[in-house]
Write a structure and sequence with these properties.
The structure is a single chain. The chain is of the alpha+beta class. It folds into three domains: 233 residues, no CATH class; 126 residues, no CATH class; 92 residues, no CATH class. It is 23% helix and 30% strand. The protein contains eleven helices and 32 strands. It has a 14-stranded antiparallel sheet, with no helix packed on it. A four-stranded antiparallel sheet has the order 22-23-24-25, with no helix packed on it. It has a three-stranded antiparallel sheet with strand order 3-4-5, with no helix packed on it. The C terminus is likely disordered.
C-alpha cells in the first residue's frame, strides 16, 4: 500500500504444522487458505484451484473467469488457456524452456545450459530482440528500450535498473514471497524476484523444474524429490523455500538454498579459525553462524542425486575471492574445469575429515567446495566420478604427498569403476597400455572438457597427493590461454 509517496508493507502469516500458509494479514486485505489431505491448495478466498492425479495445477477459477493448465508426459507445463488467451510453451531435451507462443507470436529463448542453472542469453520475439550479458550474475539487458544494468539486493532480487548513462530508470519493491508491491519505470524486463524470470501471462516465476506463484507462495507442480528427515518441512511438495523466502532461494524449482544465512555462516566460521585472517584469504569477511553450513550438508546427503542442479546456486553470495575474479572471467574454460576438479576433491576430503574428527580441516574442505560451486561454476554432473586413490599402486614414481604416478594402473582402475565414460575405442587404447583421448562419449559425462576434443587425457594428482583425476593434457601444464594447473 502506498501512503504519502511511501510504500508500506506490513504482512504477517500463520502456518499449519507442515508449512502450509493458513492466513495472511496485510494492509491491502486478509486471506485464508484451504488445502486437501495432500497439501494441495483448494482456495485462497479469491480463487479456487483444481489438480490432477500427478499433483499438477489444472485450473484456477476466480472473478476474471477460469484459467486451465495442460502438461506433457513429463509434467512440464505446455499450455495455459484463460481470459487472456492461450499461451503455449516448448522445452528442449534437458527440460529448459525454449519458447513461449501467444496470440502476438512466438518468443524464442536462447539458453545456455552449461551454467549451474540454465540461463537465457537471448530472446527473439514479436517485440524485438533482447540480449543478456553475464558476469557471476546477469549484468545487463540490451533490448528495444536500450541497454539497462541490473542492481541487486542480498537475495539476488532486481531492485533497480539504470541506463547506459547511469540514470536510474526503474525500481522494484517486493512482498516477502516475490509479488511486486510497487514498481517505477516501464523498461521491458521479466527478471525480478531473486533474479528469476517472471511470466506475465501465468503470473508465475519460471524456476526451471517448476513454475512458482508468488501470490500464494507455492508451486503449481509437486516436488518430485523426497524430503529430508532432518528438516520435516521439506516433505511438503508445494511450498516455496520451506516458507522462508527472506533467507532462501530456489532457482532449480527443486531445492531450497540458504542464500544469505549460508554466506554469513561460512564467513563467520572462517573468522573463528585461529590464524586464518582476512588478509591471508585476500577477502574481507563478516560474522555469522556455523549452523547453516551443517544444514547445507545434511541436504546434500539426503538429496545427492540432484546436487548438480540445485546446490550450485549462490550458496555463499557475497563471499568474493576478488584476486581470482579477473582470471576466471577471462578464462571461463579454466574456471569450469578447475571448479569441477576442486568440487569433487574437496567433497571427498570433507567426508574423510568429518570421519576423522578433523573439524577445522572439514570446514576448509567445505569452504573450497562451496567456492567451486558459486565462483568457479563447477559442472557437478561430473561429481559422481570420484578421484582414484593411487597410494597402493605398484611401481611408478612417488609424488611428494603420498601418491604414485602410474598411468596404466590409473586407467585400468578408472575403466573398472566407470566403464560408461569410455568408448570402445578408448577401452582398446587402455588395453594397449596407452592413455585415452577425449571423444564424444567422454564429453557426454564430462561436458566441461568439450573444448579439448581429441586431446589426450592424463591423470592429475591433486596437490601432489594420492588422489588423482583425469584431465585434458594441454590443461595440465601452463600454456597461455590453455593450461593452468602447473606452472
Amino acid at each position: 500500500e502506498k501512503r504519502d509517496g511511501v510504500v508500506e508493507l506490513d504482512d504477517s502469516y500463520t502456518y499449519d504444522p507442515v508449512g502450509n500458509r493458513r492466513t495472511k494479514a496485510a494492509l491491502g486485505g486478509n486471506a485464508s487458505y484451504i488445502y486437501d489431505a495432500n497439501d494441495r491448495l483448494l482456495s485462497d478466498g479469491k480463487y479456487t484451484y483444481g489438480w490432477d492425479a500427478a499433483g499438477n495445477l489444472t485450473s484456477r477459477s476466480g472473478p476474471e473467469g477460469q484459467t486451465t493448465y495442460r502438461y506433457d508426459a513429463e509434467n512440464r507445463l505446455v499450455e495455459t488457456s484463460g481470459p487472456g488467451g492461450v499461451v503455449q510453451y516448448a522445452y528442449d531435451a534437458e527440460g529448459n524452456r525454449i519458447s513461449r507462443t501467444t496470440a502476438a507470436g512466438t518468443t524464442v529463448f536462447v539458453v545456455d545450459p552449461n551454467m549451474p542453472y540454465a540461463q537465457v542469453l537471448e530472446e527473439h520475439g514479436p517485440a524485438g530482440a533482447k540480449l543478456y550479458a553475464y558476469g557471476n550474475d546477469m549484468l545487463n539487458i540490451q533490448g528495444p528500450d536500450g541497454t539497462h544494468w541490473f542492481d541487486y539486493d542480498g537475495l539476488g532480487s532486481v531492485r533497480a535498473l539504470t541506463d547506459a548513462s547511469g540514470t536510474l530508470t526503474d525500481t522494484y519493491i517486493y512482498e516477502a514471497f516475490g509479488s511486486v508491491a510497487h514498481r517505477t519505470g516501464t523498461t521491458a524486463n521479466d527478471f525480478r524476484f531473486t533474479g528469476e524470470q517472471y511470466d506475465e501471462a501465468l503470473e508465475m516465476y519460471y524456476l526451471r523444474a517448476r513454475y512458482y506463484e508468488p501470490g500464494t507462495g507455492r508451486f503449481g507442480q509437486q516436488d518430485r524429490r523426497s524430503g529430508n528427515p532432518a528438516n520435516p518441512v521439506t516433505f511438503n511438495k508445494y511450498i516455496y523455500t520451506n516458507a522462508n523466502p527472506i533467507n532462501n532461494t530456489d532457482p532449480s524449482g527443486l531445492f531450497s538454498i540458504p542464500e544469505i544465512t549460508t554466506s554469513l555462516g561460512i564467513q563467520g566460521f572462517i573468522r573463528s579459525i585461529p590464524g586464518l585472517t582476512a588478509k591471508a584469504l585476500g577477502v574481507g569477511v563478516v560474522s555469522g553462524v556455523f549452523s547453516t553450513i551443517y544444514s547445507i550438508i545434511t541436504d546434500i546427503e539426503a538429496n545427492r542425486d540432484i546436487t548438480a542442479k540445485s546446490v550450485a546456486n549462490a550458496a555463499i553470495s557475497g563471499f568474493c575471492f576478488g584476486f581470482l575474479s579477473t582470471f576466471f572471467t577471462q578464462y571461463r574454460w579454466a574456471r569450469i574445469i578447475i571448479g569441477t576438479v576442486v568440487s569433487g576433491a574437496s567433497l571427498v576430503d570433507f567426508v574423510s575429515s568429518i570421519k576423522a574428527g578433523l573439524t577445522i580441516r572439514a570446514s576448509l574442505d567445505l569452504l573450497i567446495f562451496m567456492f567451486s560451486l558459486r565462483y568457479l561454476r563447477a559442472d557437478l554432473r561430473s561429481l559422481r566420478y570420484q578421484p582414484i586413490d593411487t597410494s597402493n599402486f605398484k611401481g611408478g614414481t612417488p609424488t611428494k604427498n603420498g601418491g604414485i604416478r602410474e598411468r596404466i594402473q590409473f586407467w585400468k582402475e578408472w575403466q573398472t569403476r566407470y566403464p560408461e565414460t569410455l568408448s570402445e575405442a578408448n577401452k582398446a587404447i587402455i588395453k594397449g597400455d596407452r592413455a585415452p583421448r577425449i571423444d564424444a562419449t567422454w564429453c557426454k559425462y564430462f561436458p566441461d572438457q568439450a573444448p579439448y576434443m581429441g586431446e589426450k587425457l592424463i591423470h592429475h594428482h591433486i596437490n601432489y597427493g594420492a588422489k588423482a583425476i583425469p584431465l585434458p593434457e594441454p590443461f595440465h601444464r601452463y600454456q597461455p590461454g590453455r593450461g593452468i594447473l602447473h606452472p
